[in-house]
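chain below, 399 aa
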Amino acid sequence: MNIKKTNRKSVAGVSPDTVLVCCSGKLKSIGILTCVLLMSSCALFKPKEPGIGDPVNWSDIDGWNEDSHAEAWPALVKNCIALANKTKWKSVCNAIKQIGEPDDKEARLFVESWFRPHVLYGKGGREDGLVTGYYEPLLKGSLSPVDGYSYPLYREPDNLLTISLDEMYPELKNKRVRGMLVGKKVVPFYSREQIEKNRELLSGNEIIWIDDRDDVFFLHIQGSGRVRLEDGRLVGVGYSNQNGHPYVAIGRRLLEWDELDRDEISLFTIRQWLRDNPQRAEMLLNENPSYVFFELREDTSAGPTGSLNVPLTPERSIAIDPKVVPLGTPIWLTTNIPGKPDQIYQRLVIAQDTGGAIRGPLRADLFWGHGNYAEQSAGIMKEMGTMLVLLPRGEKLVD
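prediction:
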């Protein structure tokens, strides 16, 4: 959808977060000052609350009819692996079973019949937010710590506790606390720095060894990857759990330290900084206390599994904040091709993953798949974009 931006400056004591609207309900292009002078015939209301808001008509969505909707169909089908028994998804998934491989028009009409689009709002009623990308990197590894392979990936350790609080405190639904038991107290689990400085802490939990420290660090950020073993075999490694410490973007630290400018921060410039600054590299990496534990995946053909526990689909799966958008929700994403602000990127995607850096209503991470194209696209993607959330109707719209 087209985004209309309003310059909200305080006028005559009116809050910057207040919009003036004529009594007819239609926004007038008469400017804030004029509307203030017509207070007798105007009403005040605050911007939309952050989160899923008003429904819109399919005909009002820019680019909707131009997408190749059949390409999103496999991702929608995978949803039913996890959601088939959910109340509003039962009928949707039953209907999906009746359809084989639809063409673009059939897939589009199906979505229009079973879902309703809603605007997703951010703070202050804004409709655009940050869209980044992630991918499945390829690393070199060994199943034993032979020469040249000295950086381990760990499985989830037995002493890591994951405590759900929602049974005792319903207001903390989906909130989990991670830690470990020391005596009779639950204390924070080891941070990245503690783990890296003392390998004995997680000794015996190694599942594979990698040849490059920085590759391991960025794998923790991506959440999953592929590892080429010495004998040529390819295995997958996927997210299992996390140590409970908050994710801190090291790119932000480099910005704060005046090491890189905002516009030049990317996967590739951060990698280069680490190579160019070996004496400070460990200090920078440890600025992010978060640490990820993995599990091996022998079959790499289906792709990595996201937080919905279904395989991700390149350019059709995204990570979102599940506190705002339910996992499995289809989303109409409008942004730009990475690095090309003059080229629009619009498509139907499915919210099938989460991420430590993906917080808030207008924040998304687009999964690009694997390979050079995926790495290049994900590595530089930091575009502004809008999202329309497609909520299931529960029953098909009557034609």
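The domain at 53-133+307-392 is CATH 2.40.40.10 (Barwin-like endoglucanases). DSSP finds ten helices and 19 strands in the chain.
thats it, cya
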